[in-house]
Structure formats: structure tokens, C-alpha cells
Protein 1
Amino acid sequence: MTVKAYGAYAADKPLEAMDIERRAPGPRDVEIDIAYCGVCHSDLHTVRSEWGGTIYPCVPGHEIVGHVSAVGEEVSGFTVGDAVGVGCLVDSCRHCAGCEEGLEQYCSHFTGTYNSPTADPPGHTLGGYSQRIVVDQDFVLRIRHDAGQLAAVAPLLCAGITTWSPLRHWKVGPGSKVGIVGIGGLGHMGVKLAHALGAHTVAFTTSESKREDARALGADEVVVSRNAGEMAAHKDSFDFILDTVAASHQLDAFTALLRRDGTLCLVGVPEHPHPSPNVGALIFRRRSIAGSLIGGIAETQEMLDFCAEHGIVADVEMIRADQIDEAYERMLRSDVKYRFVIDNASLAA
Ligand code: NAP
Ligand code: ZN
Ligand code: ZN
């Protein structure tokens, strides 16, 4: 079937309206009418081929929510009309150690929601800036939030799970002191989730203008990271710091804030590498620098259910598909509170 989408034909071209093909649902497939799609900084990195390897035409979008419009005959658990989501993954090998542990994001052969090889035309996956998507039932998530919250649930499918997974892996909870660096799409979810998990949560921002907001999001303290005095007050004190910054920056300012055995976990994937960290600062306190990739399907469902139970959604600004390039420019200026979400109904216009 042909559906309307928004995507780019080259790294240096703006996004534009295009028609794309979706496969007819196979026996195990769920066809979804996409209502909303969040705009992740990874969409921008990919569309502009900042990481290299982008295949065009590129239709980004991996924070997808909508309603089931058809199911294959072997599908159990989903019926037409159900509110569902799709995140960054639409398939994986199913039998490697990662897949068997429910950590499909660490499968060497996972299929990303966009920019991955697939048998479907045009030979690579096309994401959620589109009217419909067809996905294997094992990669479809159930949404239990109130219907009116659907647009604000979309960012949970990437920003939510990418912060939830490391917060859980490093066992953040009551008694832990946790820092969240960069209060953008990922960071604002990181603050909400760390707070909800019971941690003493400190937001680090370069934007003085986000100081009040960060408190409202759930931060117990806010540090403007450009102010050396404010940073120094937290020396040697954090159990865990999650760095969501989308640009290259010095890590030493944050490793110095970890207590002995603390971890700085990187989730931001900047176009240019970070300067090498000061190894001595790690060795003399047995500190770690780690990384983390999105999250598996089971933990994504766990996060969605936790958020539904605790009334957690993203703070979103709704846009039309034809505003996407302007949204990217504003995202680069850190001028978004705190996630753009496309109203996919605008694709029909
Ligand atoms: P975003 O909304 O643009 O937020 C990034 C935030 O970083 C900004 O709001 C800003 O916060 C801060 N920042 C930006 N430029 C900075 C600079 N030059 N120096 C210091 N701080 C700066 O982006 P996002 O969607 O949250 O994504 C963040 C990064 O995570 C991207 O690189 C994305 O590709 C990556 N990502 C990784 C995964 C994964 O699985 N590991 C998943 C999704 C996304 P302040 O104004 O508060 O300073
Ligand atoms: Zn993302
Ligand atoms: Zn696998």
C-alpha cells in the first residue's frame, strides 16, 4: 500500500513530502495508523548523515504511537483499534545472547525502525514520519495511558526507554544521587524517571533559562554547568551521571563529580568525538565511563507501564510535518520544551 510520508532525498536537502510503500501485513504483522511521532535528535543526525551511512530516501521517526488498523492471522494480543507504540527496533535475529535476554538492542542484526536493510521496498526501513507502518507483533508495544495523553506518550518510545534502561541497569533508586546532563528530549525524561524512581536528582544544563523548568520536571537541584562554583559544590558525590548531550564536550567536568566507584554513562552520540577523558581521575576513584543503547522490548513495555501507573508523559510541542526542518534548527539551538511531536494527520494535507 502507498502512504504519505515526510523524508529527505539527500543529506543536504530539506525534508519534503513523499509517497512510500508499506508491505501488506503478513501472518505475524500488526498494521498501525500512526497518530503522532516524536522528533529525536537521532533523526536529525541520521537525515543529515552526521554518523555516515544514511541510505536515501530517508524517512526518520522512531517514537511512534497510533492505533492498530489490521492484524495478521497469527497475531495474538493485539486487535484493531488498540493504542500501540513502536520504538527504535522493528526486528532482530531472535536467537543471539542479546535477543534471548530480551536485550534486542544489543543484537548485531537488529533492524532499526529506519535506515536498516529490509526485504520491503525500497530495501531499507522507513520510519514514523508517515501515515502507517507494518511491524512484527513482537516489536509492538502496548500503551495503557489515557487516550488524551497519546501525543505526549510518543517520546517515551525512544527518549523514555533510552534513559530508563541505564537508570535501571545501574540500580538508581532511593538513596542514590543521580545527575542528568543536558535537559533536552532525553534529559527531561531522565529527570522525570530518576525522580519517580526515588533518586536524589540533579539536573545539569548549559541553559540558565531551564533552571526553573528543571525543578518542575522533578529535579531536586539544578546546576548550570557553565558555572564552575556550582559544579565544584558537587565534587566526589554522585553515584551515577547520565550524559545525554548531543554535542562533543569535556567529560572531565562530570567524572570529577562522581564518588568512588561512580559511573558516568553516555547516551548522547555526537557527530564529533568527545575529547579524551583524564584517565587519572578514573583510576584514583575507580570511576567508570560507560555507554548505553536504547532498551529492549520487555523493558520498554515495563517503562511504558511504569509511566502509565505514575502519570508520566513527555512535555511536548506539537508540529505539522512541514515544520520539521524548522524544528530541527530549533532543536540544535536547545530551543524546545522538551520534545517536538509531529501530528501525523498533517501528512494528509
Ligand atoms: P536534544 O533534545 O537536542 O537534547 C540535547 C541537550 O543537550 C540540549 O537540549 C542541551 O541541553 C544539551 N546540549 C546541546 N548542545 C550542547 C553543547 N554544545 N554543550 C552542552 N550541552 C549541549 O537531543 P536528544 O533527542 O535528547 O538526544 C540527545 C543525544 O542522544 C543525541 O546525540 C541522540 O542522537 C542521542 N541518542 C542516543 C540514544 C542511545 O540509545 N544511546 C537514543 C536516543 C538518542 P541544555 O540546554 O540543558 O544544556
Ligand atoms: Zn531516538
Ligand atoms: Zn539477536
Note: The chain has two domains: 2-158+295-348, 160-291.
Protein 2
Amino acid sequence: MPRRSILLYPDPRLRMPSAPVDDFDADLASLVQDLVDTLHGTATGIGISAPQVGDLRRVLVMDLTNDRNGPEVYVNPEILSRSTPGLVEESCLSIPGVVGNVVRSTELRVRALDRHGAPFERALTGMHAVCLQHELDHLDGKLFIDRLSLLRRIGFRLKRALGAAS
Ligand code: NI
């Protein structure tokens, strides 16, 4: 199955909100499979969202298994409840070379549809919960760098302006 190329910051499509999925058709099935393949094609990625491959549908995929053979698909995900905020280190496939600390809930409950349109609910903790929030942000056109402290954001812009960011 084909891997798709991952859009890189500051591609304007990363800033656009994605639309809910209504059609669980063959086109959605290939998007889901391509997202899984694209994620597994990266060296260290644990999650990817449809807008990162230029498709503005509310779909995200995560795989936090060690041998990367347990992809989870979330279509139209919604966070039902969250608790226990903590400071966690994040990076993003669309912003290579940048790592930063972000405040995220480390426990949450999510509702979504699977790739066939069947609803499910799941409790997530730790990196699982953090990853879901990061990918859900992508569906709203938000990036983790938006959540960095002001000082860190200024440093990031400065680095880019000086051409130091890779
Ligand atoms: Ni990301």
C-alpha cells in the first residue's frame, strides 16, 4: 500500500480544520491504510493525522506498540473527559527537529468511530492519551508548537529566521 508524503511546517494546509467523515467508502479505507503505512514508514512516529498527508478529513492513526503492528484508527474522535494535566515532551512528523514541553492530560476518555463507522469508547493513559490529543489538535489545524511557552516560541521563530532549524 502506498505511503503518502508528509506535509511539513509551515505548509498552510496544516492550519486548516478537517471535516467530519460521513462516507465510510473505499476512499476512506485507502486513506486509513495509507495513514497506517505512512506512519509505519517513519523512523519513530507514533501517530499521524489525515491533514498531515493533505487530506482534510477527521481521521487519525496511532501505533504505540513496540513492534509497530497494532495500529489504532480513530474517525471523528471526541474527547469525553480528561484529567491529570502534566508536562510532556512532544515532537511532530511535520516539524522535524523540534522538541518541546507541552501541558497535556495524561488520562482521558475518547469516543470515535472505527474505519467501518462503528462507534467505540476507550480510556487512554500516558503517552497514549498525549498522542491522541496531539493528533486531535491536527484535525483542528493546531500544532504542538502553538502550545509551547512564549519564550520557547520566540526561540523557535528566531532559530527559523536564522536558518538554524533543519
Ligand atoms: Ni504532529
Note: The beta strands are 47-49, 59-62, 72-90, 100-113, 119-125.
